[in-house]
Amino acid sequence: DSFDDKSMHIIDPKQSSHWHDIGRQAFRICDMEDKIEFYQDYAHTALPEILKQGTRIQLAFIDGWHLLDYVMLEAFYCDKMMDPGGLIILHDMYLKGLQHFAAFWTTNHNYEAVTLQNGLLTTKPFSSISGKPFHCTEHFKEHLEPYVSDSMIVLRKIAEDTRKGMDYTAFV
Fold first, then answer.
1. In this structure, are 153 and 72 located in the same domain?
2. What are phi and psi of 141, to 5 degrees?
3. pLDDT digits (tens, 9 = 90+) for 85-140
Protein backbone atom coordinates (compact mmCIF):
# COMPACT_ATOMS: atom_id res chain seq x y z
CA ASP A 1 0.00 0.00 0.00
CA SER A 2 1.04 3.60 -0.35
CA PHE A 3 2.16 6.02 2.32
CA ASP A 4 2.02 9.80 2.30
CA ASP A 5 5.32 11.63 2.57
CA LYS A 6 6.81 11.27 6.05
CA SER A 7 3.82 9.20 7.13
CA MET A 8 5.49 7.68 10.19
CA HIS A 9 6.81 9.61 13.16
CA ILE A 10 9.20 7.54 15.25
CA ILE A 11 10.47 8.70 18.62
CA ASP A 12 13.35 6.84 20.25
CA PRO A 13 15.90 8.65 22.41
CA LYS A 14 18.17 5.59 22.55
CA GLN A 15 18.01 4.47 18.89
CA SER A 16 21.69 5.26 18.30
CA SER A 17 23.23 4.85 21.73
CA HIS A 18 21.42 1.70 22.87
CA TRP A 19 19.97 0.04 19.76
CA HIS A 20 22.83 0.91 17.35
CA ASP A 21 20.32 2.30 14.82
CA ILE A 22 18.83 -1.15 14.09
CA GLY A 23 15.33 0.34 13.66
CA ARG A 24 16.48 2.96 11.19
CA GLN A 25 18.52 0.33 9.33
CA ALA A 26 15.37 -1.80 8.96
CA PHE A 27 13.57 1.12 7.28
CA ARG A 28 16.60 1.69 5.04
CA ILE A 29 16.68 -1.99 4.01
CA CYS A 30 12.95 -1.87 3.18
CA ASP A 31 13.54 1.30 1.14
CA MET A 32 11.18 3.21 3.43
CA GLU A 33 13.60 5.57 5.14
CA ASP A 34 12.12 8.53 3.25
CA LYS A 35 8.71 7.70 4.76
CA ILE A 36 9.72 8.28 8.37
CA GLU A 37 10.28 11.36 10.44
CA PHE A 38 12.69 10.24 13.15
CA TYR A 39 13.13 12.01 16.49
CA GLN A 40 16.06 10.98 18.66
CA ASP A 41 14.37 12.51 21.67
CA TYR A 42 12.06 11.64 24.53
CA ALA A 43 8.34 11.45 23.76
CA HIS A 44 7.44 14.04 26.40
CA THR A 45 9.48 16.66 24.53
CA ALA A 46 8.99 15.47 20.92
CA LEU A 47 5.20 14.98 20.97
CA PRO A 48 4.31 18.62 21.77
CA GLU A 49 6.46 19.71 18.81
CA ILE A 50 4.79 17.17 16.51
CA LEU A 51 1.38 18.40 17.67
CA LYS A 52 2.37 22.03 16.92
CA GLN A 53 3.11 20.98 13.30
CA GLY A 54 -0.56 20.03 12.87
CA THR A 55 0.26 16.35 12.44
CA ARG A 56 -2.61 13.83 12.40
CA ILE A 57 -1.99 10.21 13.40
CA GLN A 58 -4.00 7.02 13.14
CA LEU A 59 -1.80 4.70 15.22
CA ALA A 60 0.38 5.18 18.28
CA PHE A 61 2.54 2.41 19.74
CA ILE A 62 3.49 3.40 23.29
CA ASP A 63 6.45 1.48 24.70
CA GLY A 64 8.71 4.06 26.29
CA TRP A 65 9.08 4.90 29.94
CA HIS A 66 6.55 2.71 31.67
CA LEU A 67 5.75 5.12 34.47
CA LEU A 68 2.07 6.00 34.74
CA ASP A 69 2.61 9.75 34.36
CA TYR A 70 4.79 9.38 31.26
CA VAL A 71 2.35 6.97 29.59
CA MET A 72 -0.49 9.36 30.42
CA LEU A 73 1.43 12.26 28.90
CA GLU A 74 2.24 10.33 25.71
CA ALA A 75 -1.36 9.20 25.30
CA PHE A 76 -2.61 12.74 25.96
CA TYR A 77 -0.57 14.17 23.08
CA CYS A 78 -1.33 11.23 20.79
CA ASP A 79 -5.05 11.65 21.48
CA LYS A 80 -4.86 15.33 20.49
CA MET A 81 -3.48 14.29 17.08
CA MET A 82 -5.70 11.23 16.58
CA ASP A 83 -8.97 11.02 14.69
CA PRO A 84 -11.82 8.80 15.90
CA GLY A 85 -11.09 5.24 14.80
CA GLY A 86 -7.39 5.67 15.56
CA LEU A 87 -5.56 3.13 17.72
CA ILE A 88 -3.25 3.31 20.72
CA ILE A 89 -1.27 0.13 21.33
CA LEU A 90 0.26 -0.31 24.78
CA HIS A 91 3.06 -2.77 25.46
CA ASP A 92 4.11 -4.46 28.72
CA MET A 93 0.63 -4.69 30.23
CA TYR A 94 1.95 -6.81 33.11
CA LEU A 95 3.09 -3.54 34.71
CA LYS A 96 0.63 -2.04 37.19
CA GLY A 97 1.17 1.53 35.95
CA LEU A 98 0.05 0.55 32.46
CA GLN A 99 -2.93 -1.34 33.86
CA HIS A 100 -4.01 1.73 35.83
CA PHE A 101 -3.52 3.90 32.77
CA ALA A 102 -5.64 1.62 30.53
CA ALA A 103 -8.37 1.48 33.18
CA PHE A 104 -8.38 5.27 33.56
CA TRP A 105 -8.24 5.93 29.82
CA THR A 106 -11.08 3.59 28.85
CA THR A 107 -13.23 4.82 31.75
CA ASN A 108 -12.65 8.56 31.35
CA HIS A 109 -11.94 8.99 27.62
CA ASN A 110 -13.84 7.89 24.53
CA TYR A 111 -11.73 4.77 23.99
CA GLU A 112 -12.58 1.08 23.96
CA ALA A 113 -10.43 -2.03 24.08
CA VAL A 114 -10.45 -4.01 20.84
CA THR A 115 -8.94 -7.23 19.54
CA LEU A 116 -7.93 -8.41 16.09
CA GLN A 117 -9.82 -11.58 15.21
CA ASN A 118 -10.14 -13.11 11.75
CA GLY A 119 -8.48 -10.03 10.29
CA LEU A 120 -11.02 -7.59 11.77
CA LEU A 121 -10.97 -5.26 14.76
CA THR A 122 -13.73 -6.17 17.19
CA THR A 123 -14.82 -5.27 20.71
CA LYS A 124 -15.12 -9.00 21.42
CA PRO A 125 -12.47 -10.15 23.93
CA PHE A 126 -10.12 -13.01 23.19
CA SER A 127 -11.53 -16.42 24.14
CA SER A 128 -8.22 -17.31 25.77
CA ILE A 129 -5.37 -15.15 26.94
CA SER A 130 -2.04 -15.60 25.17
CA GLY A 131 1.30 -14.95 26.76
CA LYS A 132 2.31 -15.36 30.36
CA PRO A 133 -0.33 -14.78 33.03
CA PHE A 134 0.37 -11.79 35.26
CA HIS A 135 -0.97 -10.18 38.40
CA CYS A 136 -3.29 -7.28 37.80
CA THR A 137 -5.66 -4.92 39.52
CA GLU A 138 -9.25 -6.09 40.02
CA HIS A 139 -10.73 -3.52 37.64
CA PHE A 140 -8.18 -4.39 34.97
CA LYS A 141 -8.72 -8.13 35.43
CA GLU A 142 -12.49 -7.77 35.13
CA HIS A 143 -12.70 -5.26 32.27
CA LEU A 144 -9.48 -5.27 30.24
CA GLU A 145 -7.36 -8.39 30.77
CA PRO A 146 -9.42 -10.41 28.22
CA TYR A 147 -8.20 -7.94 25.57
CA VAL A 148 -4.49 -8.46 26.28
CA SER A 149 -2.42 -10.56 23.90
CA ASP A 150 1.32 -11.06 24.25
CA SER A 151 1.40 -8.30 26.88
CA MET A 152 -0.20 -5.77 24.52
CA ILE A 153 -3.60 -4.11 24.44
CA VAL A 154 -5.18 -2.07 21.65
CA LEU A 155 -7.40 0.91 22.50
CA ARG A 156 -9.58 2.45 19.78
CA LYS A 157 -10.68 6.08 19.89
CA ILE A 158 -14.47 6.17 19.58
CA ALA A 159 -15.00 9.94 19.52
CA GLU A 160 -13.38 13.24 20.42
CA ASP A 161 -13.14 14.12 24.11
CA THR A 162 -16.30 15.90 25.27
CA ARG A 163 -15.70 15.89 29.01
CA LYS A 164 -16.32 19.04 31.00
CA GLY A 165 -13.62 20.51 33.24
CA MET A 166 -14.82 18.76 36.40
CA ASP A 167 -15.75 15.35 34.91
CA TYR A 168 -14.20 12.25 36.44
CA THR A 169 -15.26 8.62 36.69
CA ALA A 170 -13.63 6.32 39.26
CA PHE A 171 -11.69 3.51 37.62
CA VAL A 172 -10.28 1.43 40.48
1. yes
2. -60, -45
3. 999 999 999 999 999 999 999 999 999 999 998 888 999 988 765 555 567 777 78
Same domain flag for 24 and 71: no
DSSP H helical ranges for the chain: 22-29, 43-52, 68-81, 96-108, 138-143
Q: How far apart are CA 72 and CA 60, in angstroms?
A: 13
Classify residue 36 by its DSSP letter: E
Residues 28 and 71 placed together within one structural domain of the fold: no
Do 16 and 96 share a domain, yes or no? no
Rounded to two decimals, the pTM is 0.85
Q: Could you give the CA distance from residue 131 to residue 119 in angstroms, rounded to a whole number? A: 20
CA distance 120 to 109: 23
- The DSSP output letter for 41 is S
Which among 75, 136, 151 has a CA at the least distance from the CA of 108? Answer: 75
In 30-161, alpha helices (H): 43-52, 68-81, 96-108, 138-143
Instruction: Give dist(CA 66, CA 95) in Å, integer.
Output: 8
